Fold this sequence. Notes:
Layout: H1 2-19, H2 27-52, H3 54-58, H4 64-72, H5 81-99, H6 103-128, H7 149-156, H8 173-192, H9 200-217
Amino acid sequence: YGAMLVVGALLSGWTAATRGQYVGAPPQFAWDMAVKLVLAGVVGSRLFYLIQYHQRVYESAHTLADMVKATVNLTEGGLVLYGGLILGAATYFVLCRWHGVNPVKFGDAVVPAVFIGEACGRIGCLLNGCCFGDPCRLPWGLEFPQGSVPWSVLVSRGFLLENAPATMPLHPTQIYSSINALFLAAVTAWYYRRRAGDGSVLALAIMSYSVTRGCIEVLRGD
């Protein structure tokens, strides 16, 4: 997962640095923005997870050291995209204002980079085993092996026996999300040269992602 975050940050940064020049933003600004947004995204996603699942995270933490370990222990899961979007958006507007860059014009130009980053991050979700889907009867259903995140969750919920070698075939919702992100990256890049006015590409990105994400959420089983 961490490796895919790095790949996503590099591809996203390169895309933003290239496209940011359409509105006169220097490539260095885009790279600085990419690094800071990755950090803000991870911190925000973790904070949102801790708020949403605090009972699960801290149920076995009895000392201060246990609480600190549980807070930063990402190996047992816990990032929620919404938190990253919230803190990332706040960081974005602060940095644009600090450097005198128009956040709406710059956002219109570089929003495809955000989707490219998410496409990589969702492959990280697949490799990590999180964000898995419901049972799937289609040919591309994926089985996760014994000891994986989906296997452990399904055993704990009573959907699998403890000696099951793998899960039943599940919808690869992580791959659906990655394909969706690449599709939206292409759509927003295409629309940029045909936009009605400043902010219209950002508006398209927000509305289209909300709809497509909602459709994929219906198939999520985690």
